[in-house]
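> forwarded from #structure-qc
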């Protein structure tokens, strides 16, 4: 039995960090794996209430976890000393499927990145030593069973599930993996049961501990979200009319992108184009307004939720697209999670020290979409954690 920390309002296990009612320590079997596991963990996952790395630490005889933080705690670079024969589990171009390896080709050790898909990409990008290791991919035999934390697609699974599927390919004779997944499933069942029965108990909690409604919507609608950015310019002949010049977007759950420049009737000045980061030749190859509308409606159906930092971006979309869509103002969502005015998107990204990735899009759309994605991921992860804390506290109150 694990040690338990007691407070006047809650009891929490010091081994798995879960409330006493949800402690999983006694259920986790010990798997005597031969392949050494090195988990490189994104900092946001360290104390995430729904993380699965504790299952890896407690369940496997040869497993270690290292936080991806440099000495100054400002970056994600962290090199781990791994022995020869170690590979990295990451779907980079050219990665070999683990299932296709012959016994003599199998790695003796495996680096596994722990984090959301966006965070895992950042960790891989910021650690060049990973690029020097043999790279392996994984095709899960079934979708993730992590029903309390949404995965972007059926090919994305939790860290624990990824490790289990990898070891099934590398050590076909390894015992205990099914039992470990059964313990994982039972933890999920317990969590869901407490969530379903805690609504009355939650009413007795203080209001300030409840996640705002906008954050619950943000988490629930993630798979339907499209982050968008647009540029427009004033027509000298009709000063009150602004013409769409650029419309770009990315779907965070899949990475699909949309990028269109619109062929103008009247060209902006060279100075304006330079400010926008767009070449005249690029505009000359642009599409018609009608083509923009049809292409956008094909990319983003009415069931999507369009996310934009500023209201002006949403207004621009409503001028050229006749299809009604739900929308989310990212600035408002961020402001609801912080006190005070958020300021410009660039200031928020700098203030939060976000890890930015430029999206493949024209002009200023690339870096702006990258910043918006980082802010969305920040408040989404905070919302997930807040919801999990509320549910755990509801269990404690009961």
């Amino acid at each position: 039995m694990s040690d338990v920390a007691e407070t006047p309002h809650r009891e929490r296990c010091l081994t798995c960090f879960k409330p006493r009612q949800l402690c999983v320590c006694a259920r986790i079997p010990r798997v005597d794996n031969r392949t050494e596991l090195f988990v490189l963990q994104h900092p946001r996952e360290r104390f995430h209430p729904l993380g699965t790395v504790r299952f890896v630490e407690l369940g496997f005889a040869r497993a270690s976890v290292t936080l991806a933080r440099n000495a100054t705690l400002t970056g994600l670079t962290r090199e781990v000393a791994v022995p020869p024969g170690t590979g990295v589990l990451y779907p980079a171009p050219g990665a070999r499927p683990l299932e296709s390896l012959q016994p003599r080709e199998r790695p003796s050790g495996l680096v596994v990145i722990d984090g959301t898909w966006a965070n895992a990409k950042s960790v891989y990008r910021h650690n060049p030593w990973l690029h020097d290791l043999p790279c392996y991919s994984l095709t899960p035999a079934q979708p993730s069973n992590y029903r309390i934390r949404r995965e972007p697609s059926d090919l994305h699974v939790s860290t624990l599930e990824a490790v289990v599927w990898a070891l099934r390919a590398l050590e076909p004779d390894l015992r205990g993996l099914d039992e470990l997944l059964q313990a994982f499933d039972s933890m999920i069942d317990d969590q869901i049961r407490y969530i379903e029965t805690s609504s009355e108990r939650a009413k007795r909690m203080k209001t300030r501990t409840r996640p705002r409604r906008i954050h619950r919507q943000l988490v629930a609608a993630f798979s339907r979200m499209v982050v968008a950015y647009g540029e427009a310019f004033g027509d000298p002949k009709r000063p009150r009319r602004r013409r769409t010049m650029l419309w770009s977007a990315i779907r965070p759950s899949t990475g699909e992108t949309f990028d269109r420049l619109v062929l103008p009737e009247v060209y902006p000045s060279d100075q304006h184009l330079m400010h926008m980061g767009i070449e005249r030749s690029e505009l000359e190859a642009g599409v018609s307004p009608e083509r923009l509308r049809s292409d956008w409606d094909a990319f983003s159906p009415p069931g999507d939720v369009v996310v934009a930092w500023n209201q002006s971006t949403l207004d621009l979309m409503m001028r050229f697209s006749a299809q009604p869509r739900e929308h989310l103002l990212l600035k408002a969502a961020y402001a609801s999670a912080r006190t005070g005015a958020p300021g410009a998107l660039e200031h928020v990204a700098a203030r939060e020290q976000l890890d930015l990735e430029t999206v493949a899009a024209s002009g200023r759309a690339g870096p702006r979409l990258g910043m918006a994605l980082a802010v969305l991921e920040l408040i989404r992860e905070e919302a997930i954690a807040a919801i999990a804390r509320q549910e755990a506290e509801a269990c404690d109150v009961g």
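QC bot note: The mean pLDDT is 80. DSSP finds 14 helices and 13 strands in the chain.
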